[in-house]
Amino acid sequence: MSKAKVFDRNGKVTAEIDLPEAVFGYPVRGHLLYEAVVSHQANQRRGTSATKTRAEVSGSNRKPWRQKGTGRARAGATRNPLWRKGGATFGPQPRDYGFTLPKEAKRNALRAALASKAADGRLLLLEDMTLAAPKTKEGAALLGAFQVRSALVVDGQANGPLFRAMRNVPRVKAVDPSRVNTRDVLAHEWLVASRAAFLSLMERFQ
Hints:
Distance between the termini: 16 Å
CATH topology of the domain at 3-26 and 101-203: Ribosomal Protein L4, Chain: A
Mean pLDDT: 95
Number of helices: 7
Structural class: alpha/beta
Largest sheet: 6 strands, mixed
CATH architecture of the domain at 3-26 and 101-203: 3-Layer(aba) Sandwich
Low-confidence stretches: none
Number of strands: 6
CATH superfamily of the domain at 3-26 and 101-203: Ribosomal protein L4/L1
Strand order of the largest sheet: 2-1-3-6-4-5
Order of helices and strands: EEHHHEHEHEHEH
């Protein structure tokens, strides 16, 4: 079983914890990660784009001129899609783009994402991430001490100053352990977690 070092904010090793083989020994399956990311992004789409059909645009149903004898092309309504300001033909309508992966597939995708971060040496565990003040520079300094520029920061919601401090740090997102997902893990270069939050995250796989 592999181990991970736990650091304090000064970069000193304070402990080592075991990385569960059930999670970090899982094979990195590219297509499974792809499906999980596509599913996540599809579920975020609002799907509100729409155009008006000939039944919805303004205009009369009255025949603009008689069928024969005028020399003009025959027309039945001014809302015809061929006319200027007419309705759209086969235009987009509000729809739901989302689809759901099986629960086990989502769990395995997250396993694979976490395993890839550990394999790349991009997993950073900190003993504590409490900040003196909920300020952006405090959050940036915490990550800057470890040369981390892009990170998914994981800690409990009780650490409110950390979440407020990380909101304006570029390429950084702070989440609760219960909200860690495959897309966010892969979208950031590092996974940074407090020791307590990491153990809480591992409980999701038990």
